[in-house]
Amino acid sequence: MADDIVSLKAKILGAIESNVSLFRRSGSDEYRIRCPYCGDSQSNRNDAHLYLKCSPDPSEPILYKCFRCDAHGMVNGKFLDLLGIEVPGAELLEPKRFRRLASIRDSKLELLVGSPDMDSIQVDYLEHRLGSGLTLSDYERLRIVWNVDMLKPYISTERTKNTLPSNMDSISFLSDDRSMMMTRFFDPGRGPRWKKTKLFPSDNRGYYTVASTLDLFTGETLTVHLSEGIFDTISAYKNFNTGDNSVYLAFLGKDYNSGFDYLLAKGIFGSNVEVRVYADSDVNRKLLRSQLRKYRWIFGSVTIAWNVSGEDFGLLPDRIKLGEIKV
After folding, report:
1. Cα(43)–Cα(236) distance, rounded to whole angstroms?
2. Number of neighbouring beta carbons within 10 Å of residue 215
3. Are 165 and 197 in contact (CB under 8 A)?
4. Hey, where are the domains in the chain?
5. How far apart are CA 269 and CA 222, in angstroms?
6. How far apart are the C-alpha atoms of 197 and 179, rounded to whole Å?
7. Are the CB atoms for 137 and 105 separated by under 8 Å?
8. DSSP codes joined into one string, 33-57
9. Which CATH number applies to 2-105?
């Protein structure tokens, strides 16, 4: 079923490219065409304001959004009719089908990581770092590997299996695509504080997200919280929570642009999307503000936040005092 969807999406994208007057690639999974709803720019026929997002992930539909008239939704037979295109099998691109595929993809998370243990040293460590207040429901969303041994059946290489860290002296998190495990060791004297373990081959860049279900087609505000590290992101989720329709993302490095690349690749953009960037203490905020200005037209707002105390955000709440500036 998944392979059929991937093949169908490729056929539809190829048909659109062959039949529209203007087709431009704007990212790894993104394309621009002229909008069939508003007719797009009449003064410049080379302008194209409707973005298509076609991910290779079979659980994600092809999405469209026009930045001129704000038409948005899922590419299906009705959308193709507007373009004068007919692709056999396009009727399979229905919301229920993608929701079913997504549930298959997501249903095994608990099989990979085990169940949260509120009496564990992992919970003790997080409360020591960030303070108390997270509930069992919160911990279920944090992608913590509660039992490392449960990963072994899903790992193909013996070397990786034999070098997995222990739950006795560390806390581990799964990446967004589950291809990588990031481990933080409790004892700073043992060597490196962090270890990344590749669980299976993947060309994807590693990201960490708090598990969530989003409505990309809502007209209500969607807030994105971007941070460099995992503990900063959990701190944003714990201390600056903006409700269910929110994204909490760690891009695991110093490349703040990669966080925005992730959002665009996932179809998270538009005038209702507010992005909050939690800058580390060693970041030049003036330079960062200049670098992020190119994203202002894609999102409703972009705000840079920092901890006035001169520290990062992965701390107890009483050690965090926000400073903010709009991009």
Report:
1. 45
2. 10
3. yes
4. 2-105, 108-198, 208-326
5. 9
6. 9
7. no
8. E--TTT---SS-TT---EEEE--S-
9. 3.90.580
pTM above 0.70, yes or no: no
Q: Two tokens at 215?
A: 């409505």
Residues of the chain with pLDDT under 50: 1-2, 100-107
Domain 208-326 matching CATH 3.40.50.300: the answer reads: no
Q: From CA 125, how far away is CA 129, in angstroms rounded?
A: 6
How far is the C-alpha of 283 from the C-alpha of 291, rounded, in Å?
Answer: 12
- Per-residue confidence (pLDDT) for residue 109, from 0 to 100: 61
Is residue 208 within 8 A of residue 177, CB to CB? The reply is no
| Single-letter amino acid code for the residue at 67 | F
What does each C-alpha distance from 167 to 54, 134, 195, 196 come to in angstroms? 38, 20, 13, 15
Q: Angle between the 121-130 and 230-239 helix axes, to the nearest 10 degrees?
A: 70
CA 250, chain centre distance (Å): 9
Instruction: Select from 263, 259, 264, 290 the least CA-distant residue to 277.
Output: 259
Strand ranges for the chain from DSSP E: 23-25, 30-33, 50-53, 63-66, 72-74, 170-174, 180-185, 194-198, 208-209, 222-227, 246-250, 270-278, 299-307, 322-326
Give the pLDDT of residue 95. 59
